[in-house]
Design a protein that fits this description.
Elements lengths: L14 H4 L2 E5 L2 E6 L7 H12 L5 E6 L10 E8 L7 H15 L3 E5 L7 H4 L10 E2 L3 E2 L2 E3 L2 E5 L14 H13 L6 E7 L6 H9 L4 E6 L3 H16 L4 E6 L4 E2 L6 E2 L6 H9 L3 E4 L4 H8 L4 H4 L4 H21 L8 E3 L3
Parallel strand pairs: 1-16, 2-3, 4-10, 4-11, 5-9, 5-10, 11-12, 12-15
Antiparallel strand pairs: 1-2, 6-7, 8-9, 13-14
Length: 340
């Protein structure tokens, strides 16, 4: 068995066919993947040792983003969208961004919900804090929990609602996206407004978007709207990297009883019907909402919790799907042998 023949746990393809870079020296193996997976290193070392039929593997896992289609130094723009409001899209977006950061990527977060921006609150950015302006025309993103963040809430106040028609909102979003000094980013996560209106279409058509993630609940009406969102992205040739099913189960904190308050496995059924990956299933938990509302999202405040592990797994899966789309299947790995 060779390391390059190991099948990636998310993509079901060998690392060799995906173009992973491999360096071996005795039981030391260095692998460079096209998605960040720092949290998976220990598990992969065990799996790789079993695959190679050896006792142990000293695995060093590296990350190098590939096939970027973004702008400037931004490698990939990923839209986090939902067909309707109230499904936890913004909470999912911020935790996915923080999960990618925890896995080893350089990440930015753009709050594209012009009418109801919430990422400032979720990131704990102090009310009234404003981005610095450079050269009179460029915004410097605000740093929060390791992310570079930009939001309409950073340039307006709660008392100035956006009473704009669609073209005005779309123009404002393009300005924020293009005039922010994002610097070197592997992923720019964009928290989209709910629905399939002007802003979604404008950003989808005028920004170099690499892929989209659909957030839904198992509820039938939410699933119908999620399908509309998937169809919209198909029409503008943006690949859907997968579905995140939010509020999938509720576990009673007192007795541990599991309840499917909004139905069971609806997101999985839609994913199977439309042949898109199910990136993860997140529980309905009060702690997720309380932590996000308090400016301390779950992945940041409880990094070792089961819920954070679910977000990190979903983030790795999402980035892996992007790698799988960008990596030519015929490309082989670069393999170097080093004598002990």
């Amino acid at each position: 068995m060779k390391v390059e023949e190991f099948v990636d746990p998310y993509l079901g393809q060998s690392w060799g066919s995906l173009g992973a870079r491999v360096l071996t020296s005795g039981n030391q193996v260095s692998v460079t993947l096209g998605y960040p997976a720092a949290g998976l290193q220990a598990d992969l070392a065990v799996q790789l040792a079993a695959f190679l039929e050896v006792n142990t593997v000293d695995l060093q896992l590296n990350f190098a983003v590939s096939g970027g289609s973004g702008f400037g130094q931004v490698k990939h723009i990923v839209l986090v969208s939902s067909g309707k409001g109230g499904v936890g899209k913004s909470t999912t977006a911020v935790n996915l961004a923080l999960a990618l950061d925890a896995e080893g990527a350089k990440v930015g977060l753009l709050d594209a919900d012009i009418y109801g921006p919430s990422q400032g609150m979720m990131l704990g950015v102090a009310e009234g804090q404003r981005p610095n302006i450079k050269d009179g025309k460029h915004f410097e993103p605000i740093r929060a929990h390791g992310l570079k963040a930009m939001s309409m809430s950073f340039v307006t106040t709660d008392k100035t609602p956006m009473v704009w028609r669609g073209p005005m909102a779309s123009g404002a979003l393009q300005q924020i996206l293009g005039q922010t000094l994002w610097g070197d980013l592997d992923y720019l996560i964009v928290d989209m407004p709910p629905g399939t209106g002007d802003i979604q279409l404008t950003l989808s058509q005028k920004a170099p978007v690499s892929g989209a993630v659909i957030v839904t609940t198992p509820q039938d009406i939410a699933l119908l709207d999620a399908m509309k969102g998937i169809e919209m992205f198909a029409k503008v040739d943006i690949p859907v990297l997968g579905i995140v099913e939010n509020m999938s189960v509720h576990e009673c904190p007192s007795c541990g009883h599991i309840s499917h308050l909004f139905g069971a496995d609806g997101g999985r059924r839609v994913a199977e019907d439309l042949s898109v990956p199910l990136l993860g299933q997140l529980p309905l938990a009060m702690s997720i909402r309380e932590q996000a509302d308090g400016g301390q999202p779950t992945v940041k405040v409880e990094p070792d919790s089961k819920i954070s592990a679910l977000y990190r797994d979903a983030a790795r899966n999402m980035a892996a799907q992007l790698w799988g789309r960008k990596s030519p299947a015929a490309a082989g790995p670069t393999i170097s042998m080093v004598d002990d």
